[in-house]
Amino acid sequence: MRMTRLFRRTRIAARQLRRHAFARDTRATVLIEMAFCIPLLVLLGLGGLEMANLTLANTRISQIGLSVADNASRIAVGSSLSLPRVREVDINEVFTGAEQQAGRLNLRERGRIILSSLERNTSDDGQWIHWQRCFGELDVESSYGDEGDGITGDDFPGMGPEGAEVTAPPGSAVMFVEIVYDYEPLVYGNWLGQRTIRSTAAFNIREGRDTSQLYPVAGVTPSTCT
Predict the structure, then answer these.
(1) What spatial distance separates the first Cα and last Cα of the chain, rounded to whole Å?
(2) pTM for the full model?
(3) Residue numbers of the domain that contains 100
C-alpha cells in the first residue's frame, strides 16, 4: 500500500515538474515561429526591393525623356545673320547625353529613343512629322506616327495619346520624344515577367530656327530610325 502511494506521489510530482518546465521554456516555440516567418519576411523584403527598383527605373526613364526633348529644343547653331540650323551631329550629341544620363540602365541595348520634329505642313497648315531620329537597339516603332505623316492635309491630329495630342504652333516646332525601355527584374523575373516602360515628353523649340531640314555634316552618320 505504501509503495502504491509513493508511486502515485512520484507520478504526480513528475507531471507537475514537466508542466512547470515546459511553461518556462519557450525557446523551441520561438524557433518554430521564426522558421515559418523568416521565408515570408525575405519574400516581402525582396518584393519591396523589386518594386523600388522598378519605380526608380520609371522615374529615370521619364527624366531622360524630358532631358532629350529639352536639349533638342535648345539646339541653335549659326550666326545672328541667319536662322540657326539643326545638324545631324547636334542630334547625335543629344542622344549621347541621354546615354550618359542613363548610366547602368544600358539604354543603347535595352531601349529606344524616338525624337520627332512636329511641325505644320506648308500646304494645308496641318500637323506634320517633318523628321524623325532614333537611338537604341530595341526594335520598336513610334506609337504616334512616322516621319512624313501629315505632310499634306489636316487629318493628322498631332502626337500623343488619343484625345490629348500635342500640336505644333504656327511658325514653330515641337520636339516630341518617346522612350521605350525593357526593364529587367532583379529577383522576380519569372513572377514579374518582362516589363516595358514607356514615357513621352515634348518641348517647343526655344527660339526661331531653320526648320527646312536637318543639315548634314561631313563624316557624321544620321541616327535614322530604319
Answers:
(1) 105
(2) 0.80
(3) 49-204
